[in-house]
Amino acid sequence: MVWIAGPLSGLIVQPIIGVVADESKSRWGRRRPFIVMGSLIVACSLLTLGFTKEIVALFVLDKKLAKIFTIVVAVLALYVTDFAINAVMSCGRSLVVDTLPIQKQQSGAAWASRMGSLGHIIGYGMGAVDLVQIFGPRLGDTQFKQLTVIAAVGMLMTSAITCWAVTERVLVTVRQDPRRAQGRFKVVQKIWSTLLTLPPRIRAICWAVFWSWIGWFPFLIYSSTWVGETYFRYDVPGDARNTKDALGDMGRIGSTALTVYSTVTFISAWILPPLIRAPEDNTFTHRPPVAIAHWVQTLNKFKPDLLTAWVASHLMFAFAMSLTPFAASFRFATVLVALCGVPWSIAIWAPSTFMGVEVNKLGGATDPTSPNGGSPVLYRRMSGGSSIEMRGLGDSHHSDPESAAGAGNSTGELSGIYFGILNIFCTLPQFISTFISALVFAVLEPGKSPELATDAHPSEHSDPGGTNSIAICMFIGAISSLAAAYATTKLRHV
């Protein structure tokens, strides 16, 4: 029940919030109000999750009843956290598309990747140190309580910086479309109709993401467990195998592998974007300093484009996952996990970049006056000068001399719904991958894992010398990644 919170929230919340935000006429912009509200809800839910027992104790005195309510409140807090944070993520990604021109979409997506990777490293680092010893009981008397407090404060601070620093466009009118869904379920109807009529290139991006996530999901969920199990199968000393904290040892070995993986992802997110040619880069004139102009021009000739790099990342991930059944030491398993940090860094920013480019093309950002660019989007400064007022598509009358100022800039009117649909193609594979993994576990390890079930009867253990079922799940992911590579190459011909 708990594990489904993540995929379910991504499947439901991001498309719906995307549609609602796309049509929001708030004076504060279309995305920032949702970021603020979502961040506040996330912070409150995290604190509730960390201090559930204390909160329940204020209202329920019976110990048995309090235990039940503690579980219920904790699960609800986890669901609320997942749903609210998906709203923040949806609007955050759309904000990048809304505010940056086509030529800067890769740069914006790359920076989002860098910040996400930095957050992972900070999160793993805080989990590895004893926070209670560092801060004392001021933030809570347990590690988990202090983690939730720090995460809540970090969520509020980073969201506040984003909302303060970004100058967002304000929607004035919504395009009048006679086919626009009406009634109670108009949001769902709009998502469904848009899903059925996706532009060819956006559909190709979505299918590439779909196949890649069938491969990525088991890796993201089981990789640390797999490294820990590999350690206990092949590397653990005999006297340490029967330790009382065997599960903790596995967790620490797996966490070490994830820390290395996150570090590789972070480094790749900084190094790779400057070495890869962005989409529509030929429309942007680079002016490097004269002293290095020759070297920059020479390097640019050998830069692969982002599509080639995305295909290569699929193949690299498939190669690493195809070797998982043959891993016979936790060091080799750690190397394979760390190697996946490079394709993951590309998998984070490549789909967002291509989607941002296509959404802006649909909005006519490339050339608002071209007959093939759609209806022009008009801009004019508000009296305060702090935001840009934006007319909806279809309002082609130029009522303001500054209305053409947005030519060539990002519009992103539909970024919310299209990124929400992209997230559907990210979350559906998670259910498919979970079903495949369940079948693999049922066939290969019908008993209890000997690495985990230390207190189980030996007759219930699976064979420790047999094939690791998690490795087989990741091998299946390698096959799916090959399908993703093929689907990505089709984007070049659409």
Automatic annotation (TrEMBL):
Superkingdom of this protein's organism: Eukaryota
Cellular localization per UniProt: Membrane
Gene Ontology CC terms, in alphabetical order: plasma membrane
Principal subcellular localisation of the protein: membrane
InterPro entries (UniProt xref): MFS_trans_sf
Keyword tRNA-binding included in the entry's annotation: no
Transmembrane stretches, start-end: 34-61, 68-89, 109-135, 147-167, 202-223, 306-326, 332-351, 417-444, 469-488
Keywords: Membrane, Transmembrane, Transmembrane helix, Transport
GO molecular function: sucrose:proton symporter activity
Entry annotated with the keyword Transport: yes
Topology in the lipid bilayer: Multi-pass membrane protein
Record's protein name: General alpha-glucoside permease
